[in-house]
Design brief:
The structure holds 2 protein chains of 2 kinds.
Chain A (H helix, E strand, L loop, with lengths): L2 H4 L2 H11 L8 H23 L2 H15 L3 E2 L8 H27 L4 H21 L9 E2 L4 H9 L5 H25 L9
Antiparallel strand pairs in A: 1-2
Helix pairs in contact in A: 2-3, 5-6
Chain B lengths: L5 H7 L16 H9 L5 H10 L4 H12 L3 H18 L1
Helix pairs in contact in B: 1-5, 4-5
Classes of the chains: A mainly alpha, B mainly alpha.
GO molecular function, one term (chain B): DNA binding
Main location (chain B): nucleus
Subcellular location (chain B): Chromosome; Cytoplasm; Nucleus envelope
Amino acid sequence: MTTMRIKSDQEIRELLDGYGIKHGPVVESTRHLYEKKLKEAMVKDKVTVTKPSPDRTFYREEREEVSYVNYRTPVRSEWPSGDGEPYMRSRPEYSDRDLVDEKLYSRSRPEYSSGRQYVDEPHVYNTQSSSSSYSKPTPVVKPGGGVVKAERKASSGRLIPLWIQFLVFLIVAGFLYFLFTSMESAESSPFNRIQ
Amino acid sequence: MSSTSQKHKEFVAEPMGEKPVNALAGIGEVLGKRLEEKGFDKAYVVLGQFLVLKKDEELFRDWLKDTCGANVKQQGDCYGCLREWCDSFL
């Protein structure tokens, strides 16, 4: 890694620009710092080249951002992938339908009133499905159009640390499970029904 | 961010002149010595470095950590101190 040392100031400057690293003039006192930054950037580069999967998830996140217009999306990019996997499969069905609805809505301006109703339907559909799926230990879908912009902004940079989201998810899941078990004990156990 | 320290207030209240490097907020005896060993014996020399790094917070913090091993709080205190001084006097 001493190859950095033999580069001229100009070359270091060019490398910094190449990596997009913000920097000041490369003088004696700053040189060491910039050499370090370049080394880190090079290591990072090697790492990202060998890992193609992050691109896939990025595409997925993008897709979700675009399609979930009417939802307050709990499936932001930061949600645990463990939870996301089975859940996300059912969601694209909603999203496709929603996307279609949005297109119709935006296209037909004179049909404003009817378009509006049409858009409302997924809302209703949402609430019903959300209440039925409430027993599942997954985050509840709440319709809220105005929240979309805030969600999009938040998903680009983590405002809420990941571990807090994990924690909240576990708390909600645990609570729901507790509810479910307490409800089960009120009725007779289904296993004793053979008479 | 927590309220500024007495050291900070004193430093930003007037031109730094020939103040030693440990007059800077966040720079105590240990860090001050390390900086002096590297040639940064006066506050204005660190100021010079701060300016050469274009007053950028991240660069300055990295440099400070690299040069004298300052922790996050110390970095922040020093950066805030210099930045405010520059706002008033530069």
